[in-house]
Amino acid sequence: MGSTAAALACTATLAVGLSACGSDDGVLRTPDGSVISTTTTRFAEVNIVGAGRDYSRTCLAPTTVDPGRTDAKRIVVTDPALLDGLCALGLGPQVRAITAAPGSVPEYLGPQLAAVPAVGDTPDAAAIREAAPDLVLSTPGTAKQLDALTATGALGTARTAVVDPAGDAKASLMAVAEATNRSAAGTQRVDEFIAEAARVGRVMDASHSQVSLVRFTPDESLIEGTSPFGAQIMALVGVDRPAPQRTPAAVPMTDDNMTDADADLIYVSYAGDGGRDRGHDVLMSDEWLNLGAPTWKRVLSVNDEVWYGRPGVAAGWLVLNDLKQSLNSSSASG
Q: Which residues form the Fe/B12 periplasmic-binding domain (predicted)?
């Protein structure tokens, strides 16, 4: 809501004798005290792709267990890296505890998984008993947690599985699908995603769009290569990349090589507040604004956590939807 609307809201508040707009918490509110949405849709003259996206819709519909196999109704996870696969298989409601630090669930997975109790890296037996799991999923990196929980007897008769989420999004999902006795569903979800990516590529004539990736961290400005997750999804869709960006490694961007970042469209992202500060300075600089894509208003901002995070099919759908929405768009207007 713009400043004019906010001012009107506060005027109305005074008229009815309420004081929400004069509160000390710095939150804009309507006359009845409801918080006013202030979703940012633009940063440094660049439109944000998917601004205000409803992450409660990230997780896909529930899947069925393989014929003749045991289903898991209550799942404990010892590594948040496994949550994307569970989300893609529609198993979010079955996750009852996560042995990780509070706040470790990626925001893009939505409020359902964010609400699951995060019981810490070294949970006590009581927290796990309360979760009453019938399946506990671990990773090679958190297998010691699984051993410790087993030693306390907190797992009871729960089945355990060590799942390696390393590799691409397909391999990660299929590992989780196998552990949850949903191999057939996992294959179907992967096939659906690949088919949709190919369709999007055809419909949007993606091979004739040359797209650049630039990432800002607190310490560096980077021209990205082919290794980031978002770049892998772009390749699956068939999006072309500028010649300097066709190798895996990222390259620090300087005034001397900034033209290597230019393309028909540039997707930028920011890692944390420091990345946003650096990005703002670069995007408003004369050197950047003299490039072709900024001149044509063909620079867009994407979610760093999704595009540069751990590969997963749930995140992959968000990247794919970003491409659907923005591949032929611009930042010409707010």
A: 74-331
Non-local (6+) Cβ contacts of 228 within 8 A are 213, 215, 250, 307, 308
Sorted by where each starts, the structural domains of the chain and their CATH numbers stand as 3-38 (no CATH), 46-55+190-326 (3.40.50.1980), 75-181 (3.40.50.1980)
Residue with tokens 């208003």, as numbered in its chain:
297
Q: Please determine, for residue 39, whether its predicted confidence score (pLDDT) is greater than 60.
A: no
Instruction: Report residue 18's pLDDT band, with 50, 70 and 90 as the boundaries.
Output: very low
Q: Please state whether beta strands 95-98 and 75-77 pair in parallel, antiparallel, or not at all (unpaired).
A: parallel
Give the residues across from 221 on adjacent strands: 216
Q: Are 177 and 163 in contact (CB under 8 A)?
A: no
Question: Can you tell me the distance from the alpha carbon of 8 to that of 208, in angstroms, rounded to the nearest whole number?
Answer: 47
Number of other residues whose CB lies within 10 A of the CB of residue 144:
12
Tens of pLDDT, residue by residue over 53-106, are: 999 999 999 999 999 999 999 999 999 999 999 999 999 999 999 998 888 999
Report pTM: 0.86
Cβ neighbours for 78, distance < 8 A, ≥ 6 positions apart: 98, 99, 100, 136, 137, 138, 139, 142, 145, 146
- Evaluate whether 85 touches 173 at the Cβ level (below 8 Å): yes
Question: Which residues neighbour 7 within 8 Å (Cβ) at sequence distance 6 or greater?
Answer: none
pLDDT at position 124 is 80
In this prediction, residues 263-280 reach a mean pLDDT of: 96
Number of H helices, E strands in the chain: 13, 11
Query: Residue 333 — pLDDT band, cuts 50, 70, 90?
Result: low
Distance CA 203, CA 206 (A): 8
Q: Identify residue 21 by its one-letter amino acid code.
A: C
- Cβ neighbours, 10 Å, residue 287: 14
How far apart, in whole angstroms, are the C-alpha atoms of residue 91 and residue 80?
A: 14
| Per-residue confidence (pLDDT) for residue 40, from 0 to 100 | 65
Evaluate whether 94 touches 82 at the Cβ level (below 8 Å): no
